[in-house]
Amino acid sequence: MPYALCFLLFMLGLYCAVVKKNMVKIVIGILIMEYAVNLFLVMLGFRVGGIAPIIDRAQYDPVIQQVAAGFVNNSVDPLPQALVLTSIVISLGSLALMISICIRTYEKYGTFDITQIRRLKG
Amino acid sequence: MYIFYFLLIFMIIAAIIAIETKNLLSSVICISALGFGASLMFLFLRAPDIAITQIVVDILALIILIRSTISRDLTFISGDKEFFGTVVSVVIIFIIFLAGVKVFETLPDFGTAIFARVPNAASQTYIKEGLEKTGAANIVSSVILDYRAYDTLGEATVLFTAIIGATVILRKKAKKLLEEPDL
């Protein structure tokens, strides 16, 4: 059920990017889709009663050099978290690129409406 | 468990307001409310690193979006609305949503980690051997900086390319050169 709600969020972003005619609204739709996908990937690795993948001093035995079994059996998945961390920072860079295209278009045409900027202007 | 439903419904309401409101500035503010909900969600999903990063990225995204919309929100979408196209898009999106819900029923329930079902998953190796192999107590940082460091290098490359693109698009000098009649 949380997966379905997350997918609903993705679909709202897709609707915004497809239907809306304002350039900033399209950017906002893409942003909503990014949030939904990141959230879904992190939700896949969650387990009920899990702990964050940070090893405490009490959970590591330096003599036999092994992590305690309680940590191994209770930790949430660290791999999606690491990849989503990368993805969030990249989404910021792509947001800056998209917004700069929007600002440039506004300077040239004086509007954000994509039906008005359809015409060619040499 | 109910906190997840609460936060997800909060995010969906914020997204709907952000999509449907006319004023671009309030739309941007709703987006930052969405990001705050996402950050809290990451915190409750036991991912503190992502929660911190999400907060910082949201602040920067708010600055960038406000820079683009402040004193420019005078765009009113005129012209006839294409009812046929809108209806077709909504129907297609709804069909995709129903198909996606059917797919999500095949996944294991929320709260049972998928990687725990696979005996030799990569995540199991990272959790078991991450500390002694890399010396980092935080498994996430041992993954992004040691096991998958090339991924982080690629991320830096993509970020650099995006910022170069934004700088090239926004600079003023080339515009003056282009407006010269004969160069």
* Overall radius of gyration of chain B: 23 Å
Structural class of chain A: mainly alpha
| Helix and strand pattern of chain B | HHHHHHHH
CATH class of chain A reads Mainly Alpha
Strand content of chain B: under 5%
Mean pLDDT of chain A: 85
Largest inter-chain interface? A-B, 82 and 87 residues
CATH topology category name of chain A:
Helix Hairpins
Task: Produce a short descriptive summary.
Chain A is mostly helical and 122 residues long.
Can you describe this structure?
The complex is a heterodimer of chains A (122) and B (183). Chain A has one domain (2-109): Helix Hairpins. With 122 residues, chain A is mainly α. The relative contact order of chain A is 0.14. Chain A has 4 helices and 2 strands; from the N terminus they run H-H-E-E-H-H. Chain B has a domain at 1-72. Chains A and B meet through helix 1, helix 2, strand 2 and helix 4 of A and helix 1, helix 2, helix 3, helix 4 and helix 5 of B.
